[in-house]
Design brief:
Layout (H helix, E strand, L loop, with lengths): L2 H10 L8 H20 L8 E6 L2 E7 L15 E4 L14 H13 L5 E5 L2 H7 L19 E4 L10 H9 L4 E4 L3 E6 L2 H21 L11 H10 L11 H12 L8
Parallel strand pairs: 5-6
Antiparallel strand pairs: 1-2, 1-4, 2-3, 4-7, 6-7
Helix pairs in contact: 2-8, 3-5, 4-6, 6-8
């Protein structure tokens, strides 16, 4: 299929003939997740990203078109790229270099990082700007015991030489606070990454509110947090490991907006 034909298909909003059923299903759920982020206020104009590996193609990713807001992302206009940023599906849309640097580094170096999410919410950036980072002082932070890495701020993330340092900072953690910047999460599925990120962002929101109040902060005993993290239902495969949470939000989205399916 030549680029003009594919562009017309993307403009009309339908599945290209060379797109497998598995890839299309992944596109639909990823596009829905972008709309969920928009619904939650996790969007940043046309910036930030959620990336997902293409099913059965470990070295290919789906990413949002650079220039569209999150509530404009659809299954057909998502861009398929390789880890170098080469566009593989003839999309007329470019890819944000900053998104490529952060996301490709994680996907390329963490085998089960099938989804990577990055946000700049007010609460998350505020906590990222604090020397001590996230405090363990609430029910949400207590579910993230020993799950968070930190990466020092190096400016706008568009330089390839930062990738190795970022991956080294991440280590074996699922979550990372990018100092002075925001949050990053990766997971085995969209739902897994989402519930991790939601919990960390919620902990940041509580910390932001707590620091606006008088009095001393009541910290959680690390032994309690360790147990709380083990007991957290949202990470339990029996409860979908985040998939049930994300699916519920997509059902809410479907009651008002199904354009992501185009």
């Amino acid at each position: 299929m030549d680029p003009m034909q594919r562009h017309e298909i993307q403009r009309r909003g339908s599945r290209a003939p060379d797109c497998s059923e598995a890839e299309w299903a992944a596109r639909v759920k990823l596009a829905a997740t972008y709309r969920v982020f928009f619904m939650l206020g996790w969007h940043e104009l046309i910036f930030n990203h959620i990336t997902l590996r293409v099913p059965d193609a470990q070295d290919q990713l789906l990413i949002n078109p650079f220039g569209l807001a999150y509530d404009e992302v659809t299954a057909s206009n998502l861009v398929k790229i390789d880890f170098s940023g080469k566009i593989l599906d003839g999309s007329p849309w470019p890819v944000n270099p900053a998104g490529l640097t952060i996301h490709s580094a994680v996907h390329a170096n963490v085998p089960d990082a099938h989804c990577v999410m990055h946000i700049h919410t007010t609460a998350s950036v505020a906590v990222a700007c604090m020397e001590d980072g996230l405090e363990d002082n609430n029910i949400y932070s207590s579910q993230l015991h020993d799950m968070i890495a930190y990466h020092a701020f190096e400016g706008t993330t568009v330089h390839d030489d930062e990738k190795g340092r970022m991956v080294a900072s991440l280590g074996d953690k699922r979550l990372m606070i990018l100092r002075n910047h925001g949050l990053l999460a990766h997971g085995a599925t969209l739902g897994h990454a989402f519930v991790l990120l939601w919990t960390l962002n919620r902990a940041c929101e509580i910390q932001l509110a707590t620091h606006s109040m008088r009095g001393n902060t009541l910290r959680v005993d690390p032994r309690i947090s360790e147990r709380s993290t083990r007991d957290a239902l949202q990470y339990d495969p029996r409860f979908g490991a985040g998939e049930q949470v994300l699916d519920a939000l997509i059902r809410r989205l479907d009651r008002t907006d199904t354009r992501y399916r185009e």
